[in-house]
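Example for tutorial group B:
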């Protein structure tokens, strides 16, 4: 079977049929959808309360601030381009100062 988009209401109908006692292969035959998909939708309803799980956009906390990233970009774009070790040492100095300021907010004010 070719990948195709299945509407949310059809997924909910499949989960409802499964909830009232139909098994996954029967629901798949009735609605014309893959049996594995029916099982996944039923599992999602049991786990998340909906046929489609919520997408959580989580990522790692950004280490460098946007300002520092823009400065690095500016350094790289300057001719002649600085060597990688110069950029690495610059990042180390700036990042260490930023961490020190985050740990001791009074030092940043004074």
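The residue assignment follows.
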């Amino acid at each position: 079977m070719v990948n195709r988009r299945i509407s949310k209401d059809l997924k909910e109908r499949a989960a409802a049929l499964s909830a009232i006692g139909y098994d996954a292969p029967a629901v798949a035959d009735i609605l014309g959808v893959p049996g594995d998909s029916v099982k996944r939708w039923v599992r999602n309803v049991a786990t998340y309360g909906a046929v489609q799980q919520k997408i959580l956009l989580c990522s790692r906390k950004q280490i460098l601030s946007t300002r520092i990233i823009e400065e690095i970009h500016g350094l790289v774009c300057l001719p002649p381009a600085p060597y990688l070790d110069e950029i690495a040492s610059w990042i180390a100095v700036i990042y260490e100062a930023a961490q020190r300021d985050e740990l001791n907010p009074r030092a940043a004010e004074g």
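The helical segments are 8-19, 24-31, 35-48, 66-77, 84-103, 105-109. Compare this with the pattern of hydrophobic and polar residues in the output above.
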